[in-house]
Amino acid sequence: MRSARTRVHLDAVLRPLQQTTRSRLSRLPQCPSASAQARTFMGRSRPSHRAYESLNLDRMRTDSYSYHIKRQRFLAAGSIAGIVAFIYTAYLLKKEIDKPTKFDSGLPKNADPFLTEAGSKRKTVVHDQEGREMVPTGNTTIQWFPRTLELKAGAVDGQEVHNGVEYTLVGLGTRTVTFLGFEVYVVGYYIATPDIAAIQARLIKDINPIATTLVPSERDELRRRLLDPVEGEKLWLDILKDVKPRSAMRIIPVRNTDFPHLRDGFVRAITARSQAHKQEYNDEAFGASMTEFRTLFNRGKLPAKGELIMVRDEAGALTIMYDDGKQQKQKTENENVLGTIGRVADERVSRALWLNYLAGKAVASEPARKNIVEGIMEFVERPIGTVAAQVL
To answer: Which fold does the domain 126-153+164-389 belong to in CATH?
Structure first.
């Protein structure tokens, strides 16, 4: 009886506690069951409340490409701007260097080397403040060459063969090197004025044996032949070997250089011409003459605007003269007082050197060769024995 009463008493006490516990547990958040967790693990999805962002790979690729393109364009623009600034600065510096440092000569600026008169080109000849006849070169550093020269050289081998002879400018031009066109010197080709008539006669008779002057169509034919590498070299060879006019090459450096540098260029030109005619140049005498020629240039510097004149006499002997500026005070009008460096008697040396400027496939200065040809056209359009020049 007592155990039954005790059990009833415990039930009466525990029942309210159980009800209270169930009530509290019902209010707690429900935990997923193991089976639910298993179902979720096996792949059955249930809704998730976490934020997420979908990735667009195409858009990311496009943005990256656009960024790199803009970056490359920006770098290229900077490089181009730097190059342009460098070139412009160099241009301004060159303009300052080219400005004359002496008094104004009174000559017109940027004069055209040629005038056209009645369909023919003529050298532009102007007078400076001292009354000298000057010809524009077209070069910004060496702007003018005298139309005539009267050389006064020291005695060579006991003879003063050049004194008192007037030389007339035929043509001129600038020698440039490399594909960038670096200017080296301006060269002018002069012929002794008394010998021009012989050249006129030789060239006119070659085109028209009965003529004393050439008409425009005949001048065009002569111009074509002089500019042709083969026919032009033949014509000038005949003139140098048969007519033998006294002539001179006047060279004025555009920038500071030296005699060995000029010598190397001259030797290469003479060697190239001699190899083309080995039967005429292949002997010991010519080799000795070339050694003598090289020796004459064993000197020092040749400053910008210094004057180097190479003269070929009636026998073809080559005389080299140089003015380092010490003789400037002795110059009057068109006369040149120069110191004589030396002389090479073998006419083949001067002939090959002259052809380097006058004819062939490769010449030292193509502008000079063309200008010389136009100067020859001035001679042959006039009657034999007359020389005319356009003077402003």
So the answer is: Chalcone isomerase (3.50.70)
